[in-house]
Amino acid sequence: MYKTLILLTISNIFMTAAWYGHLKFKNKALWLVILVSWLIAFVEYCFQVPANRIGSQYFTVTQLKTIQEIITLAVFVIFSTLYFKEKFAWNHFVGFCFLVLAAYFIFRAR
Fold this sequence. Notes:
By secondary structure, the chain is mainly α. Helices cover 77% and strands 0% of the residues. It is flat.
C-alpha cells in the first residue's frame, strides 16, 4: 500500500514538471517543449502504471484516482511555491480542505 503512495508521489512530481515546467521557457520553440514534456511524461508513466497496478490490490479505481488527485494537488502546491514563487493563499487552503473532505467520503465505508 505504501509503495503505491510513494510511486504515485514520484509520478506526480514528473507529471507536474512535464505539464508546467515549460512555462518558464516561453522563448523556446513549442515543438521542443512538447518533446521535452513527452520525455518527462514517459518517466512519469514508468512510476504511475506500476503504482496503479500495485494499488489496485488494495484500493478501488475510484479510490486510486482520489489518492492521485490529492497527491497531485500537494505536489503542485509545493511546485508552484518553489518553482514559480506563487503564494499559497487562504482560499487555496480552504479548497484543498474541501478536496480532502471529498476523499473522506469516497473512502468512507458503505
